[in-house]
Amino acid sequence: MTYTRRDVCRMGLAALPAAGLLAAADRLWAAPAKPDSVLGGVRIGTIAPYSFHNLPDDAHSVLQDLLTDNLSGCELQHYCAEQFAGAPAAAAPLARGGRGGGRRGGRAPLTPAQRAARAKAAAQLQAWRLSVSMDKFKQLRQLYNDAGVTIYALKLASGRFPAPMSQPECEYAFNMAEALGAQCLQIEFPEGKPEITQQLGAEAAKRKMMVGYHAHLDASPRLWEGAMAQSPYNGINLDIGHWIAAGNAGLLDFIRANHARITTLHLKDRQNKAHGGKNVPWGEGDTPVAQVLQLMQANRYPFPGTIEFEYPVPAGFSSLKEVARCLQFCQKAL
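Structure (tokenized):
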């Protein structure tokens, strides 16, 4: 016979003296267990709010999504933290319908009035960034930590943070990451702009904090070499789905060879280039997700695996349920 947690608690309460019944019930039900997504020694999280498509993207809602899916870690996108810290409303990003990636996707050109409004909002945001106290970011860190969630990486979302950036803005980004308790800063790989990786690598060396550069379909075995030569704190935010969709081979060997410079792994399943390269439910594509997780486990690599949910949400489901399904895949693999 199978018993639920509630059945077990009822049986335990029935065995107690009546005088202690209420106190015991309070201890059992007063607070839910904190999330735990460290599986077989491998830390699993998700990129948020990005993975929770079409859901509210404020910090409190994102925290509730993480708790609902039993995720005890996340890579947090910077604009979510900035909203919590009071960034100017005029400069706040749109709701999560755009999936947090800053992709333009064939939008109509901006009118002169729209360009002027955007420039004004950008100037307001820059002024706020260079004057804001780190106290609100520390408060956000405490809010998440108290709930059992660690912000292990801060992602500068593409299209929403300047690149190149001024030195004060660069220092602000690292200050924000430190205040949030992040172990690393993540940014899109600025291909063809070595001055950006030089600037970030130099600041990272001062802070003793890694910078992970994320690549899309331009991912290749040699892509990160120049940046890593500039600074020992320039590293790789490896997206295993993009690696496969770009037509690369030798994923496991690349991880073995570069594990010391990997900040996080973005986990997803995509078809290879010959099969179309599409994002698909985990286990249905050509990306060896399970083998990668098992390699991380066997070698006790310290970097986390970050669920980046991107395949279409099946009818009748939600991104919240699909992220949970991805976590279940990890549980099975580990």
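The chain has a mean pLDDT of 87. The chain has one domain: 37-333.
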